[in-house]
Amino acid sequence: MEGVPLAGEFVSRARDIMAGRLAPVAARDAATVVLLREGLEVYLLRRRAEMAFAAGAYVFPGGSVDERDKDHGVAWAGPSPREWGDVLHADAKTAQGLVCAAVRETFEESGVLLAGSGPDSVVADTTGDDWEAERLALIDRSLSFAEFLDRRGLVLRSDLLKAWGHWITPEVEDRRFDTRFFAAALPPGQRTRDVGGEADKVTWLSPAEALARAEDGEIYLMPPTFTTLSELSGYAKVAEVLAAERTIKAFLPQAVEIDGEMRLIIPGEDYRRP
Questions:
Q1: What domains, with CATH codes, occur in the chain?
Q2: Which strand (E) or helix (H) includes residue 106?
Q3: pLDDT digits (tens, 9 = 90+) for 63-95
Q4: Which of 210, 179, 198 is closest to 36 using CA atoms?
């Protein structure tokens, strides 16, 4: 595989890192969720053009772990943080933060909440001014997710998530994330909405249509998103995705020099940048 050509500052950063003149920025723990609905379609957001990271890219809901996501006070139902740690190859505290961030960020960026009043229930409707006020408070970090769940008398439903992948931002980037990918079904009765913020457009697309649009240059997909959609294109139903066997391993694209040109080698040879 020839990889993706690097240009501009990324070339000099890559050479400096390879020569030991520059230390890579530490990657922050993050989580992202592939939200699915029957048909099989995925929920995608287009990041605003002025965003410092992945500007203009179509992405899944997600973001960095808030240290409070690791709070032992988070009301929880489903596989424990220790069990999730075994799946995600992380300690229990880190695993809790990742799962909590996945659920919190999904609510912040789509209005969909993977939580219920108990281990066998899920919220049916998250619309209304009161829900919106709390969503905004979560975004500006004036409200922790544990506090939000406590106010509502809810528990996080970790069983509604499925671990799907693990990608680490290349070392040449100056903003780096150590991101676990999850899949989840849109809960019955809930619906996504255009919640604004970091995105200027949201859409539901089948994996095949999203890939075709990327190939035609209509939309931009980052390598992890492209690869994940390629994997999902082999499934016809949400239940099939959630029942799929997955072994989680980390992918870290690497900068290499090929015939005098710096290139980023992407795991998965079917990725091509439009």
A1: 4-187+195-265 (3.90.79.10)
A2: helix 92-110
A3: 999 999 998 889 999 999 999 999 999 999 999
A4: 210
